[in-house]
Write a structure and sequence with these properties.
pyruvate-formate lyase- activating enzyme, seven-stranded mixed β-sheet, four-stranded parallel β-sheet, globular, B12-binding domain-containing protein, rSAM_sf, metal ion binding
């Protein structure tokens, strides 16, 4: 299996290991598959280098995924892959496919199978089907594929993984951490973020209970469903104003701290960035217990930064793991903020889209300028 991480934002440096691809690579390896990753977003190579990668082996599967800003890169890569590896099964997933599955499959005829929504259980079933050299794709939920007549078929919707702790840790070892990602660790939002030298990102949860009207969750928050168009074809639809559904899921505090401790011991990370849509909505959903327990275990497991433990200014001699995440202005209070700070939280990112009451109300922000 060859996973290729496409270029996401050409104008920016590669700062984030693709969490989804790293997790899917780990799942595939745990099931006995041989996996390689070429991180085009990290290396930013020319097309000739991608040609060499595609020629390096007889790949059974070539998998790509990403958000919509990766479309141009994906389009170029799948064209190359189809020419050089005509017998390989090209699979595409992520937001770029899930947002408009039929359209994307139409734009990219090289792609044989598209994974709609979450791929944690879907990809292993696809790989098993390929292993036994069968093509009964209709039996696999959560995909769109081309039949023998090249018609697009959408299968039943895939159920979300209920127990996130059943997932393995991502395969960070397959990515150029030392060469690329650690060199681009710095974050501009705090002193600790600016001075970090070995940052990695994790997803502690999936979903968000807020209903900001501009936000697109792509099914991970339980906001996706299937319906039929006027011709009887299955189509993917997402929540619209007046009709919202949510499925909030989060790793246990024990799993999260165990993962961070693993990253500290294996890669000597000094900063963790939570990529969650909104940490505070998950804490609210847990009854205000989730963050407190994470913080307690963070300190108990020796991850608390020494500058906070010893009550001294932060500098390059500080040891431990600082961290940061996302929040919502109405969901914070002094108690939880002090608890988070004691465990090493250096900053929280808020979405200040507007301070106009009318605009904030129209976008469903759930806040006012005062709050």
């Amino acid at each position: 299996i060859l996973f290729i991480n496409p270029v996401v934002r050409e104008e920016d440096l590669p700062r984030h290991v693709p969490y989804g691809i790293a997790l899917l690579a780990s799942i595939a390896m745990n099931q006995g598959h041989q996996v390689q990753v070429f991180d085009q977003n990290a290396w930013r190579t020319d097309p000739e280098t991608i040609d060499e990668v595609l020629k390096a082996d007889s790949w059974d599967v070539i998998g790509l995924g990403g958000i919509t800003t990766a479309y141009n890169s994906i389009k170029s890569i799948v064209k190359q892959a189809k020419v050089i590896c005509p017998e390989s099964t090209i699979i595409l997933g992520g937001g770029v496919l899930t947002s408009i599955p039929r359209e994307i499959m139409g734009f990219l005829p090289e792609v044989k199978i598209g994974v709609i929504g979450e791929a944690f259980n879907t990809l292993p079933e696809i790989l098993k089907m390929i292993d036994v050299k069968e093509n009964n794709w209709s039996a696999i939920d959560g995909i769109i594929f081309r039949d023998k007549e090249n018609k697009l078929i959408v299968t039943k919707q895939r159920e979300l993984v209920e127990n996130l702790d059943s997932l393995p840790f991502p395969a960070w070892e397959l990515f150029p951490l030392e060469e690329i990602y650690f060199k681009n660790s710095q974050l501009i939002f705090s002193e600790e973020g600016m001075t970090t030298k070995r940052r990695l990102d994790i997803n502690a949860s999936f979903g968000c209970s807020l209903i900001c009207r501009y936000c697109y969750h792509l099914g991970l928050a339980g906001d996706m469903s299937y319906s039929s168009d006027k011709n009887g074809k299955e189509k993917v639809v997402f929540d619209e104003p007046g009709s919202y559904t949510r499925t909030n899921r989060f790793h246990s505090p024990e799993y999260i701290v165990k993962m961070v401790k693993f990253l500290r011991e294996k890669y000597n990370v000094d900063f963790i960035s939570f990529l969650d849509e909104n940490l505070m909505t998950m804490d609210q959903y847990s009854g205000r217990t989730w963050i407190k327990e994470i913080c307690r275990l963070w300190v108990e497991n020796g991850l608390q930064p020494t500058c906070i433990r010893d009550k001294i200014p932060h500098d390059e001699t500080c040891s431990g793991v600082h961290w940061a995440g996302t929040s919502h202005a109405t969901l914070c209070n002094q108690e939880v903020l002090k608890t988070m700070r004691n465990a090493g939280c250096s900053h929280l990112i808020y979405g200040y889209e507007s301070f106009s009451p009318e605009v904030m109300k129209s976008i469903g922000k759930g806040a006012t300028p005062e709050t």
